[in-house]
Every structure is written in structure tokens, then in C-alpha cells.
Amino acid sequence: MTLHQPIPQVPLSQPAPMYLKQAPLADSECDVTDAWNERNDPENEEGAIVTAFFEHATDHGQTQATMIGLTVEECGETFHYSTIGALFQLGLQAVRRIELVHGETLQ
């Protein structure tokens, strides 16, 4: 018996999923509709409600929040995005800013 489990091979031809089947299990969540509208719908014509989901980690007494998913509710439909999808929809700078601000609220 060995302590190490072999890591299953994942083909490089399969990209990381952009969509999720449901909202991820998360340590916390917050409304990021303003960031969504700033990037995707400045006139707020769609009336989307956007929620970000976070995983927490503590390092030297500081709690950090990492976005692990995004849910967008608009026009009677709900879309669940993975981290990759959130980065694509909001942009890297917006995701990092949201993580920083949300992390500060956890202190």
C-alpha cells in the first residue's frame, strides 16, 4: 500500500470548463452586479443580478477570498460560470479587485 495516489491524466485538448451545472459550494458570496454592469451592460438594460462565490484561505492572520464562480440571473434564465468564465466575463482586473474588497470585509 502506498501513501501516494496517482494523479489521473487530463488531456490537454480539453479546456477548463467555462460553465457550471449549478452554483459552487462556497465559503461566502456577494453581489457583484455593479461590476457586471460596468463591463457588460452599462445601461443596465438586461437587469441582471450577479453573485460571486468565494473560497477562503487564511495566511498569517489575513483571510483571503478567491472567486470560484459567478451566477448571472437575467431574463428568467440563470447561468453559472466557473472561475475561468468569471475571468472571461468580468476581466482579470475586476475579479482581482472584487477578491481584494471582499477579502477586506472578512477581516
- How much helix, percentage-wise, in residues? 25-40%
Helical run tally = 3
Distance from first to last alpha carbon: 43 Å
- Note the main sheet: 5 strands, antiparallel
**Average pLDDT number:** 88
Strand order of the largest sheet: 1-5-4-3-2
The rounded Rg comes to 16 Å
In what range is the share of β-strand residues? 25-35%
**Total separate domains:** 1
Q: Which stretches of 5+ consecutive residues score pLDDT under 50?
A: none
How many strand units? 5
Alpha-beta classification: alpha+beta
Order of helices and strands: EEHEEEHH
Q: Please state the overall shape, judged from the principal axes of the Cα atoms.
A: globular
Characterise this structure.
With 107 residues, this protein is of the alpha+beta class. It has one domain. It has three helices and five strands, in the order E-E-H-E-E-E-H-H. It has a five-stranded antiparallel beta sheet with strand order 1-5-4-3-2. A hairpin with a 2-residue loop joins strand 3 and strand 4. Helix 2 crosses helix 3. The longest helix has 14 residues. The mean pLDDT is 88.
Structure at a glance:
With 107 residues, the protein is an alpha+beta fold. It is built from three helices and five strands. 28% of the residues lie in helices and 33% in strands.
Keywords:
3 helices, five-stranded antiparallel sheet, globular, single chain, alpha+beta, 107 residues
